[in-house]
Design brief:
The complex is a heterodimer of chains A (about 280) and B (about 280). With about 280 residues, chain A is mainly α. In chain A, about 50% of the residues lie in helices and about 5% in strands. In chain A, strands 2-3-4 form a 3-stranded antiparallel β-sheet. Chain A has a two-stranded antiparallel sheet with strand order 1-5. In chain A, a hairpin with a 6-residue loop joins strand 3 and strand 4. In chain A, helix 8 crosses helix 11 and helix 12 packs antiparallel against helix 13. The N and C termini of chain A lie far apart (about 70 Å). Helix content of chain B is about 40%, strand content about 20%. Chain B contains 9 helices and 12 strands. Classes of the chains: A mainly alpha (about 280), B alpha/beta (about 280). At the A-B interface, helix 1 and helix 4 of A face helix 2, strand 5, strand 6, helix 4 and strand 11 of B.
């Protein structure tokens, strides 16, 4: 009986990803292509009938290459740090574990940073997963929706009490990460920008903020106060609550300066009318 | 509207600036909607800037119309949003599948042309056209495999799809050439069997040979100039069916924009000769 279209597709996908499908026995091959030649030969499996043909490797290669190419495009700093051969090997392992679910390959590789964190081959590079998180942040910032930014004039109309009660949201394109143990942002930046690191790398905590105020993605270093403030805004806290959390995280944090820095960077969206209380 | 289109080019991000530097009258571009189905950002802004000067066609590679399931409603929603934003002059998809049970296998995968497959795909095309509110063109795939279970020839299958759904065809001459070599059939005979009225667009592209099997296995790589054999088939085709919007595809080993324009101009000349003689 002929397999249904769905059964054919199940078999094809099995053959596509599982290269260890049993090779078709020679006797079965001859009976397959020359019917009647050997009527007692066992019928080859549906997968073997597909994967034994020379043309099948075109599909196998294209699917895997598309995944690896997308990861290379989406993780350029990781690629620059480890080189094409290392990246290719790691990306092939990842693609088999986590093939795409979204048809936009621009955003493929959401789980690649987590994969690198536990990948045996990356054990000697403890900062690699964090560098990958920043590459991922760049992608997310790049494709986020175009919503208006808040400007300082909007806020200057409010009284101090109104300002404290205002709820501002991080702009959909804003991404921020605090790295408590290593200078992942400096490493990432020196692989993303033409400029090389000047001087010795100080192995200390740091943070990063990525935004898209004028169309292109831009980045800057961020302190613990800034990261804490944006976390609080994302949770729906008022500006007063967010400021309190930021000062708790970093007692030296100047809140007026921080707010101005976030507005200039394009990290904040206007409050909706309901957000004013 | 499509009658005004001559020869166009597939547009890659590397050529955005060149495309806007010197606006070329009569040129049009085609892009893969998957590269622009995002919430916002500079990619959409670039496409909108190009759209201000040129007609744009959307050529989908992942709607998976030949999967044994309905098209993904979320995909159709995003595609509808992009169509509203860009107002494309043509919309096309492939006679192939790629998403299956929630996983995207990024390629154009084959299937046995059974009667059951015909019913499923016709239904998927109709659903797509109903949702988008537009007629779409279906592209003939490239073949690398002998499948046992075919019940229809590909040309009859395509003709039947056009009759059942009202869809058009995107005839890729390079795909026909490659498939004819790989599966050993006659490319000219195949092209002769395509109903002229259904053809909304023609694709031309380059191909390469498999590194081990050479000319015995051709690959639809889109990384070389169009082969002379393909130009010849194209000439015969438009002699029979008349001038149709023709697109030059190039996805890899991208040359300078002017080099691609040279190939495009060659197709444009052939189309204009047809229009003069018809």
């Amino acid at each position: 009986m002929k397999p249904s279209l769905a059964q054919f597709q199940d078999n094809f996908v099995d053959a596509l990803w599982h290269t260890d499908v049993e090779p078709m026995p020679l006797t079965a091959l001859s009976s397959h292509f020359f019917p009647g030649h050997d009527s007692v030969a066992p019928e080859p499996s549906a997968q073997a009938k597909l994967s034994s043909q020379p043309g099948f490797k075109i599909y196998r290669n294209t699917v895997l290459k598309s995944c690896i190419d997308a990861l290379m495009a989406n993780y350029p700093s990781v690629l620059r740090l480890v080189g094409p051969a290392w990246f290719h090997a790691a990306a092939a392992v990842h693609a088999r574990k986590a093939p795409p679910i979204d048809v936009s390959m621009l955003v493929y590789g959401q789980h690649f940073p987590a994969f690198l964190k536990h990948y045996e081959g990356a054990r000697e590079l403890p900062y690699l997963a964090d560098v990958a998180r920043l590459d991922r942040s760049w992608t997310e910032c790049h494709v986020a929706s175009d919503e208006p930014l808040i400007n300082s004039i909007d806020l200057s109309r409010l009284s101090p009490i109104e300002l404290g009660n205002t709820v501002l949201r991080p702009h959909p394109s804003a991404r921020w990460i605090w790295f408590p143990t290593q200078p992942a942002y400096t490493i990432w930046r020196s692989n993303r920008e033409p400029a090389e690191l000047d001087g010795e790398l100080a192995w200390s905590a740091e943070g990063a903020l990525l935004t898209r105020p004028y169309g292109s993605v831009i980045w800057q270093s961020a302190g613990l106060g800034l990261c804490t403030f944006l976390h609080a805004c994302a949770r729906g806290c008022t500006l007063a609550q967010a400021a309190e959390a930021a000062i708790q995280a970093d007692p030296t944090q100047d809140i007026a300066h921080l707010l101005s820095e976030l507005i200039t960077a394009g990290a904040l969206s206007p409050a909706t009318p309901n957000d004013y209380s | 509207m499509t009658q005004d289109l001559g020869a166009g080019l597939g547009l890659r991000p590397q050529h955005y600036d060149a495309a806007l530097e010197h606006i070329k009258h009569g040129l049009w571009f085609e892009v893969h909607p998957e590269n622009y189905m995002v919430a916002g950002g500079p990619r959409l802004a670039w496409l909108e800037a190009i759209r201000q000067h040129y007609p744009i066609a959307l050529h989908g590679v992942s709607l998976s119309l030949a999967a044994d399931t309905e098209p993904d409603p979320a995909h159709l929603r995003k595609l509808t949003d992009l169509i509203e934003r860009i107002e494309p002059v043509l919309i096309s998809e492939h006679l192939a599948w790629s998403t299956w049970r929630g996983v995207y296998h990024p390629d154009l995968l084959p299937f046995p042309r059974t009667h059951a497959a015909l019913l499923r795909i016709a239904d998927n095309i109709s659903r797509t056209q109903d949702t988008l509110g537009r007629r779409i063109a279906i592209e003939n795939p490239t073949h690398y495999l002998h499948l046992e279970a075919h019940e229809w020839s590909e040309t009859d299958f395509l003709r039947e799809l056009t009759q059942r759904t009202g869809c058009g065809l995107l005839l890729d001459v390079n795909n026909v050439f490659i498939s004819a070599r790989n599966l050993q059939f006659n490319a000219a005979d195949y092209l002769d069997q395509i109903p002229a009225d259904a053809v909304m667009e023609i694709h031309l592209a380059g191909h390469s040979q498999d590194s081990e099997l050479g000319a015995a296995l051709l690959i639809d790589s889109h990384d070389t100039p169009i082969a002379e054999d393909v130009w010849m088939l194209y000439g015969h085709l438009i002699e029979r069916i008349g001038a149709k919007p023709t697109l030059i595809e190039r996805d890899d080993h991208l040359p300078e924009f002017d080099v691609l324009l040279g190939e495009r101009d060659r197709a444009q000349c052939q189309l204009m000769q047809q229009q003069v003689t018809v």
